[in-house]
Amino acid sequence: MEIWINPACSKCRSAISLLDAEGADYTVRRYLEDVPTKDEIRDVLDRLGLEPWDITRTQEAVAKELGVKEWGRDAGSRERWIKALSEHPKLIQRPIITADDGTAVVARTDEAVRDALSR
């Protein structure tokens, strides 16, 4: 199990605390420093069952600069979103846990963290 975190994020710290309390075996990825490649983002999206716009933090300053709210949300626009996430990892929603069964969850709640642990 791997968790993508920004240590400054309270939701990330909460997820780590819960994983620790449950005795989970996991690896931390500080995705702002160890930036995911486009292929890794595609893989996580497949595991999440989501599209890139579903995990984009549209309120970030860089999102506003890029104008992502105006971008298409269709198959033809997918690579543009993935490229933006790989070039501006701050846009990636967090934390993301990749579960041992090959799935993933955006673990913003204790319930989502427990869901990942149960997989």
TrEMBL record:
<keyword id="KW-0560">Oxidoreductase</keyword>
<protein>
    <submittedName>
        <fullName>Arsenate reductase family protein</fullName>
    </submittedName>
</protein>
<dbReference type="InterPro" id="IPR006659">
    <property type="entry name" value="Arsenate_reductase"/>
</dbReference>
<dbReference type="InterPro" id="IPR006660">
    <property type="entry name" value="Arsenate_reductase-like"/>
</dbReference>
<dbReference type="Pfam" id="PF03960">
    <property type="entry name" value="ArsC"/>
</dbReference>
<comment type="similarity">
    <text>Belongs to the ArsC family.</text>
</comment>
<dbReference type="InterPro" id="IPR036249">
    <property type="entry name" value="Thioredoxin-like_sf"/>
</dbReference>
